[in-house]
Amino acid sequence: MIGALIDFALRNRLLVLGASLILFAWGVISFHNLPIEAYPDVADTYVQIITQWPGHAAEELEQQITVPLEVNLNGVAHMTHLRSVSLAGLSVITIIYDDDTTTFNARQEVIDRLEQTTLPQNVNPGVGPDYSPTGQIFFYTLKSTNPKYDVMELRHSTTGWCAIN
Question: Which among 49, 52, 101 has a CA at the least distance from the CA of 73?
């Protein structure tokens, strides 16, 4: 079988050369269209709903806050998992989405549904920070060789000589 393939390649050199050039060109084009990120965000899109109700037991939070929120949030578009934790005075619900949604759309739908939920008085659920674990990879410091810039000016300034370490 391999011998027949080699014989075919030797008899049809131009065909093999043309196919090789087409594959090479296809590879170059594919390489240039490939999105490359230094640290790609491989974490799932998720939204956390954090509710505090100080002085109440975990069972009470579960019944009066976590379950009503879960019922109202169940069925949001592109949701894959809904997880919750109820502790004394604290309820945390995490909604994990599939790859077909953006963080903005996910957070907006959760905010819309939170407004429709009836909870006890003085209980205001909040959406957790827009955060990705990949953000922990890139930490940096700004240093200036110019003595007129202090730390606060470096933070707010876009001019001057700064070295990123």
Answer: 49
